[in-house]
Amino acid sequence: MVVLTGEIFVDLLGRNPMGHTTLTYAGVLGGAALNAASTLARVGVPTRFVGEVGQDFLGRWALARIAERRIETRFIQEVPGIATPLCLAELDPQGEAHHSFYRSYGASSFEPDSAAMARAKWFHFGSLSSFQPRNVPGIQKLLEIALEHDVPVSFDPNLHAPPDEGYWEQLRRYMPYVSVLKASLGDARRLFPLVPAEPQALLECLVELGAPVTVLTLGERGAWAAFRTRVYRVPGVRVRVVDTVGAGDAFTAGLIYGFLKQELTSRLELLAWDGAQLPVILAASCHLAAITCTVEGAHPPEEPLNAWWERFG
């Protein structure tokens, strides 16, 4: 069982020219960790999501869509008095998304049920919501359970803005729990703005955060990873890009899937691993991210995903 936590959004995707007097958007289910959960469930991984929606139409709609994806929903809480969050993603001509987030939590706090970690073989969290004061105690509780039961933890910063000192203080508290740190080139540049923008320099800075496995994604240029004293590099996969929404989340799903295929279901096993298959895991994750870019939205198309599963499963 892979357990993931994060925000549940209704994503509003649009390609609106500045000169138009009206705006048009298509609503789809979103949220970085939820996108990763959806892909994992589609390739047969038992998947559980821990999160919140509002007691409104969008919340009920989101829960129905999550259940359709064969993701366990019993630890998703319907919170009275809040509106289900929205993420507006305006796509530029190159398919890159520019995000605006709309949240209304009021005085509520995130209080996940400890039972959500039952039978967990992997735990994943990340994004800016993990650093919001209302969410930190609940996430910390889940991380403590993961540590107690030796469950590997992956973390994706998924930054959309430069971090402040409060972010860094909380990141330092989170990192002792993290087994796998996966960051994009954009994440790394925001975390380390004074460091030269070359992958090697940024990867070295990420390694200093202390995760046993550190991964840096470079989009169409592939990915780098550091494990023990070795650095691994794999090239990207060239495709015709429709948009890049969810590509990083698909990469995260590929990483988790790859580690599970290696039967690395405890932090101790991960630390004792020889890393020989890490380049294969990285290549599979790059491939999964690439096919996600061939369609609009965050979910890989069916036929290429099945071909990916046959090849790497």
TrEMBL record:
For this protein, the Enzyme Commission number is 2.7.1.45
Annotated GO molecular function terms are: 2-dehydro-3-deoxygluconokinase activity; ATP binding
The record ties this protein, via PROSITE patterns, to: PFKB_KINASES_2
Among SUPFAM superfamilies, the record links this protein to: Ribokinase-like
Domain Carbohydrate kinase PfkB intervals: 6-301
The record, for InterPro entries, names:
Carboh/pur_kinase_PfkB_CS, PfkB_Carbo_kinase, PfkB_dom, Ribokinase-like
Pfam entry (one) = PfkB
Q: Which EC class is this protein assigned? A: transferase
Q: Which keywords annotate this record? A: ATP-binding, Kinase, Nucleotide-binding, Transferase
Q: Which family does it belong to?
A: Belongs to the carbohydrate kinase PfkB family.
Q: Write down what this protein is called.
A: 2-dehydro-3-deoxygluconokinase
Supply the source organism for this entry. Meiothermus luteus
